[in-house]
Specification:
about 65% helix; mainly alpha
Length: about 100
């Protein structure tokens, strides 16, 4: 029930080819803390890595709506989202994110 281990471990399992196990681990983290901003972001990364683009976009949208800043540059440069780069919903989400000040 360690949220950080669940949310980060899911992506590691996906990267290791254990996709369904990794997604299940990530879903468990979401069940335990559905509004946690770190869990939402890491879950979006995990689902994007697994090629589950619609779920990744849904989670990224939820993360954007949650309290706390998510900067465009973070998402633009996160390689976990490489598979989403040309997706119109992804581009629209980026356009709604603030840029890092300064």
């Amino acid at each position: 029930d360690d949220l950080r281990a669940l949310s980060l471990g899911g992506s590691q399992l996906v990267n290791a080819g254990r996709v369904e196990e990794g997604l299940a681990m990530t879903e468990r983290a979401l069940e335990l803390e559905p509004g946690d901003i770190s869990i939402l972001y890491n879950a979006a990364c995990c689902f994007a890595l697994a090629g589950r683009n619609e779920r990744a976009l849904e989670l990224l949208e939820r993360r954007l709506q949650a309290a706390g800043t998510i900067y465009r540059e973070w998402v633009e440069h996160d390689s976990d989202f490489d598979g989403l780069r040309g997706h119109p919903r992804f581009v629209a989400l980026l356009d709604r994110m603030p840029r890092v000040a300064g």
